[in-house]
Amino acid sequence: MNASFLNGLSGTIVTPWIPSYHEDRQNFNHAVQQYPLIINYCRSARDVSNAVRWARRNQMALRIRNGGHNYEGYSNGNGVLIIDISEMKGIELDERSHTVRVQGGATNRELYEYVASRGYPFPGGTCPTVGVCGYALSGGWGLSCRYFGLGCDSIEEIELVNHEGQIIKANSRLNDDLFWACRGAGGGNFGVVVSITFRLPPRIRHVTIIEIDYLHVDAKTQELFLQTWQKWLCHADQRLTLLSRIYNSDADGLSMLVRGIFYGEPEEAICLVCDFLNLPGAVSSIQYVTFLEAVTIIGSAYPAFEKFYSASRFVYRLFSPCEISDIVELIQHRPEGSVYAGLSMYALGGKVAEVSVDSTAFFHRDAHYIIWIETIFEDDRFAWFNSAWIRRQFQRLAPLTTGSYVNFPYAGLCRYKDEYYGCHVERLEQIKQKYDPCNVFAFPQGLMSCEKCSIGRMKPAEGHILRDTEELPEQVPKEHKNYRGFRYIHPGT
Predict the structure, then answer these.
(1) Is the torsion defined by CA of 400, 353, 363, 183 positive or negative?
(2) I want to staple 438 with a disulfide (CB 3.0 to 4.6 A). Which of 97, 153, 235, 455 is the partner?
(3) Phi, psi (5° rounding) for residue 208?
(4) 484 pLDDT exceeds 90?
(5) Which segments of 170-242 does DSSP mark as H helices, in order?
(6) CA 406, CA 229: separation in Å to the nearest integer?
(7) Which tens digits make up the pLDDT trace of 14-37?
(8) 18, 175, 199: which is closest to 122 by C-alpha?
(9) Cα(123)–Cα(112) distance, rounded to whole angstroms?
């Protein structure tokens, strides 16, 4: 690659001929392998502006990346420019307004540590390495959402670099249409978000963390678990948000778990989850800890990376016993090479549902919960079998559910915009046309497919496309970690 080709870019530049390239190009999901032409690590909004302008001058497709956790790899791509903002980690707290300004590269863990040291909780995500801004822009489910709302509900202001490389702001008074759109559909569609100002909840020092494991159960017990789950949601205290899971793994066979955070004391928490504690095989730990300790415990279950295929849906109704049996059946037989297959349920309701559907771009406020199906494998030989399994199971799950969660994307959706955004699609497309008329910020499941403008669909200039036959630095093998890294209440039981 001619060095002059890179003139105009600032920050740190990584190309395929730099030794760190193979590590730098990786997504969190190693099942998706992509080969960008340039990775531009930006340290400032100016670096981001330079990158956007450079991409337009050179008619090169770009992608926006902070934590690299897009499950389908939409923050990455082949032969593209990646604008990586993961080094923009500034966090500033305003005690008078009880707000915190977070740069685009800060992660859940970094924000949790910052605000918790000052006595605040935050409605962030469960995975510590996910970028906070990316998480919140597409809704933002977390274990505080039933009490504080989704991540996007706390957004006060957004600062982004637009398609012309200009820095603009959006809030309730300025560019209010863009502000509406970015709270639920802002993940990569309208520009590069370089900072978000969040409203903080009241100071809270201690919370109750709930952990319940059920190892080596049977399918009937998993059915009973799902019946208990939907019954619990009908009368759940909004101070309590739970994640539950039924799964089938090499290590545990058929098993289940419940994880959650309760904004109250353990004695009350025990009463609120008594139905789960009374299920066969329950082993529990209910602790009164600091907020930071709670999110650290929850986050410890996540490995540095995984290889998986997955899909998400929203559940809006109660399932019949027969339907529950069909759902449980989905994970009774893992695909060839899979070390884990599971269904995860993420509770909604509470403060999430108190916000009107049209107040933000996040459409699925009235859903009871998100259901997410996944299979994890370790050997690339089995990738096809696991991908095909997800397609088949999704076809069985889809008729029972409505819509999908854009933060848990699935490439197999036929009408993805309707699935993600419901009746908000037309309004979102109008806002997209207004703020990104040339579709500079395009990706496979973006809001607009522009036929008249080529910028968003542009390939790298001939002579700069990375080809399979080109010689690259040898890839350094990584140590593969086993699936999910679950925390058991009593390891070995």
Answers:
(1) negative
(2) 455
(3) -105, 125
(4) no
(5) 176-185, 219-234
(6) 23
(7) 999 999 999 999 999 999 999 999
(8) 199
(9) 9
Shared domain check, 231 and 97: no
CATH number at residue 80: 3.30.43.10
Phi, psi torsion values for 206, nearest 5 degrees = -115, 145
Q: Which residue has the tokens 């991409």?
A: 55
Structure tokens at 327: 């759902």
pLDDT > 60? residue 259: yes
Does 483 reside within a domain?
no
- Report the domain count for the chain: 3
Predicted confidence at residue 239, as pLDDT, reads 98
Segment holding 134, helix H or strand E: helix 132-137
H or E element: which one contains 211?
strand 206-214
pLDDT tens for each residue of 76-106: 999 999 999 999 999 999 999 999 999 999 9
DSSP codes joined into one string, 288-335: EEEHHHHHHHHHTT--S-B-EEEEEEEE-SPPPHHHHHHHHHTTSSPP
Q: Domain containing 112 — which CATH number? A: 3.30.465.10
Does 304 share its domain with 401?
yes
Task: Match 């863009």 to its residue by tokens.
Answer: 178
- What pLDDT was estimated at residue 479? 42
**Token code pair at residue 23:** 């590590």
The three-class DSSP label of residue 62 is strand
Q: Is 190 helix (H, G, I), strand (E, B) or coil?
A: coil
